[in-house]
Specification:
It holds the Pfam family Glyco_hydro_1. With 432 residues, the protein is an alpha/beta fold. It has one domain: Glycosidases (TIM Barrel). The chain has 15 helices and 18 strands. It has an eight-stranded parallel beta barrel with strand order 1-4-7-8-9-12-15-16, surrounded by four helices. The protein has a three-stranded mixed β-sheet with strand order 11-13-14. Strands 2-3 form a two-stranded antiparallel ribbon. A hairpin with a 5-residue loop joins strand 13 and strand 14.
Length: 432
């Protein structure tokens, strides 16, 4: 699955007073048809995309599907397969933020309503980058609740992951062959000195918390104590252990130059740049969860030479081929996003209007060098990989075939067979 995405982050800043809407500032609301033209021009069939949650979810039971109806009808007409991103770093004003204990059930209701309205959609990322969402909102103090304490972090984390789990449950009721592609940040923390080994080990355990809970995997004793000390109850913890949804999932993981960190003795961190790289860190995540892998996000700025992003694309693709060639079932790759972004140089904490040249296209919808390189990469590799794949085919029903009675039978059969057709390791763990 060669993919790109429409950046739809919607966090709030300034203590909730200011909404940052990347679809707005990047021009997608005005140019969405042109953006879909660009997807087709690149030869891409899979698009990470979702309606803006704060605009579509107006109140409990009240939805505004106007934009979604237009956009998803056009995607279906073009036979572009959406990987639907339902919650991307923010919630509607009336929900507040991720400290709200009602958020999981409210979000599950929204996911149910979406699945009811668009029954032909099969691929979902219910909540994007759950770990980063919790850290930036409730530990770094950057977004939404802008908290900086461990209790707020654990509260956000448990609500975000529960929302993701409940959404998967509701979607599966309406689409039994739904496949969930987690887009989760893949992190690693390097100790700067012997005195930093302890803090780095704790951080390297915390990085797995969202996926451990999402997949019903028992956390280690240190993380269990951390969760309990910061407000999670035993009943809340056992809710996650009681779910059996892993067999419906693909381990989508994101990797950027900033995903590796240097940890110092006093516990503070800074970006280390690429040290291990995508292949080694992905191996760590795969060994923990034993699920098919998809590289769901990467990018790099186009710099003064014009080929910086092209070199990064080549390097990430080499890493993807590496994990595939050592036997890790790998089903997709994504350059994120389709167009340049705005103000990600300050992690959306400030509204400076700085255009970040990270896209396959600029904001005038002119193709960048990395867009041309990605188009050629797709042309070169599209027909080669399926013939030598180490992962059996993902049972996807394209929009063009969704809804026919014969295809509904195929969907039901795919749902029944998918748990054993992904990988042996995708079956529920006996100790989870």
């Amino acid at each position: 699955m060669f993919a790109t995405g429409i950046e739809n982050s919607i966090p709030t800043i300034n203590n909730g007073r200011t909404r940052v809407d990347q679809m707005e500032v990047c021009g997608h609301y005005r140019h969405w048809r042109t953006d879909f033209d660009c997807v087709e021009e690149l030869g891409i069939q899979f698009l990470r995309f979702g309606p803006p949650l704060h605009r579509a979810y107006r109140a409990p039971g009240l939805y505004d599907w106007e934009f979604a109806d237009l956009a998803f009808a056009d995607l279906k007409r073009r036979n572009i397969i959406p990987i639907v991103d339902l919650c991307h770093f923010g919630v509607p004003d009336w929900i507040g933020n991720f400290q709200n204990p009602d958020f999981p059930q409210l979000f599950a209701s929204y996911a149910a309503a979406f699945a009811e309205r668009y029954p032909w959609v099969q691929l979902y990322t219910p909540v994007n980058e759950m770990f980063i969402c919790a850290v930036f909102s409730a530990k770094y103090g950057w977004w939404n609740e802008q908290a900086t304490d461990d209790r707020s972090f654990v509260t956000a984390l448990k609500h975000i992951v529960k929302a993701n789990v409940l959404a998967m449950i509701e979607i599966l009721k309406r689409r039994p062959d739904a496949i969930f592609i987690q887009s989760e940040s893949s992190e690693y923390f390097h100790a700067d000195s012997p005195a930093a080994i302890g803090p780095a080990e704790v951080m390297n355990s915390k990085r797995f918390l969202t996926l451990d809970l999402n997949y019903g995997r028992r956390v280690d004793s240190e993380m269990y104590e951390f969760l309990m000390d910061c407000g999670m109850t035993r009943e809340e913890y056992h809710f996650f252990l009681g779910q059996r949804l892993k067999q419906h999932c693909i381990l989508g993981n994101d990797y950027y130059w900033t995903n590796e960190h240097r940890v110092f003795a006093d516990g503070h961190t800074e970006a280390s740049g690429e040290v291990f790289g995508y292949s080694e860190i992905t191996r760590q995540y795969y060994n923990r969860y034993n699920l098919p892998v998809m590289h769901t996000e990467t990018n790099l700025k186009e710099g003064p030479s014009g080929d910086e992003a092209v070199h990064w694309l080549w390097k990430e693709w080499a890493n993807v081929l590496r994990i595939r060639n050592v036997g890790i079932p790998t089903v997709g790759f994504t350059w994120y996003s389709l167009t340049d972004q705005v103000d990600w140089d300050t992690a959306l904490r400030e509204q400076n209007g700085n255009v970040n040249p990270l896209g396959l296209y600029d904001l005038d919808r002119n193709i960048r060098n990395v867009g041309k390189a990605y188009k050629k990469l797709i042309q070169d590799w599209r027909d080669v990989l399926p013939a030598s794949s180490l992962c059996l085919t993902v049972p996807i029903v394209s929009p063009a075939h969704a809804g026919h009675s014969r295809d509904r039978d195929q969907q039901a059969e795919a749902a029944r067979r998918w748990p054993t057709h992904a990988t042996e390791g995708a079956l529920p763990e006996t100790d989870a």
